[in-house]
Amino acid sequence: MIGREDKGMKEEMKLEFDAISENEGLARVVIAAFLTRLDPTLEQLQDVKTAVSEAVTNAVIHGYEEKGGKIRMSAVLEKGQLEITIEDDGIGIEDVSKAMQPLFTTKPEGERSGMGFSFMEAFMDKVMVESSLGNGTTVHMWKSFQENILSQSKFLYGQV
Ligand SMILES: Nc1ncnc2c1ncn2[C@@H]1O[C@H](COP(=O)(O)OP(=O)(O)OP(=O)(O)O)[C@@H](O)[C@H]1O
Ligand SMILES: [Mg+2]
């Protein structure tokens, strides 16, 4: 499928939803649908969905401590670069670089393993976290789909 992105145009979507664990599935489905226009491989799709799941779960469990609130997800696609933003207005993170270390968790008692940020970093090209105590957290993630755009153009112009 050749989208407007193939012509170098910027495409954007924004979604706001309740911070309940059921909506992790909603976020996964929406981001997958948004990416369909890039004809992603199963691996690319899985990577992005996993990264989004981790960020949304964090907002539900840590940001809002399972008391609910609103999560905003946005995705921008420009020149083969995908940027995803997951934002909450929850408790915030005291020390972001510490929180992003593998195995660091403030909830060691449950099923948390402290690997969420590590997965986001492994599955996306770049992850950046902005947070302010008492105001919330914004996770920015980038991934390149340049290869997909190139192969679509080759297909389109018969240069395979
Ligand atoms: N949106 C958020 N709001 C507040 N704190 C957060 C948020 N996201 C992450 N954190 C903090 O960063 C820590 C590390 O997050 P990470 O996702 O890496 O691990 P985890 O959620 O504790 O465990 P896992 O993701 O493996 O289940 C969390 O334990 C929490 O203290
Ligand atoms: Mg996590």
Explain this structure.
This protein is an alpha+beta fold. The chain has five helices and five strands. The protein has one domain: Heat Shock Protein 90 (2-Layer Sandwich), CATH 3.30.565.10. Helix 1 runs antiparallel to helix 2. It is elongated. The two termini are 16 Å apart. The site of adenosine-5'-triphosphate (ATP) has 22 residues, from helix 2 and helix 4. The site of magnesium ion has 4 residues, from helix 2.
Major β-sheet profile: 5 strands, antiparallel
Task: Give the helix proportion (percent range).
Answer: 25-40%
What is the CA-atom radius of gyration, in angstroms?
A: 17 Å
Number of domains: 1
The CATH superfamily name is Histidine kinase-like ATPase, C-terminal domain
Order of helices and strands: EHHEEHHEEH
CATH domain class: Alpha Beta
Named once each, the bound ligands are: adenosine-5'-triphosphate, magnesium ion
**Class from secondary-structure proportions:** alpha+beta
| Estimated share of beta-strand residues | 25-35%
Q: TL;DR?
A:
With about 160 residues, the protein is α+β, with helices and mostly antiparallel strands. Helices cover about 35% and strands about 25% of the residues.
Give the arrangement of secondary structure elements.
Layout: E1 11-18, H1 23-35, H2 42-63, E2 70-78, E3 81-88, H3 96-99, H4 116-123, E4 126-132, E5 136-144, H5 146-157
Antiparallel strand pairs: 1-2, 2-3, 3-5, 4-5
Helix pairs in contact: 1-2, 2-4
Bound molecules: adenosine-5'-triphosphate (ATP) and magnesium ion (MG).
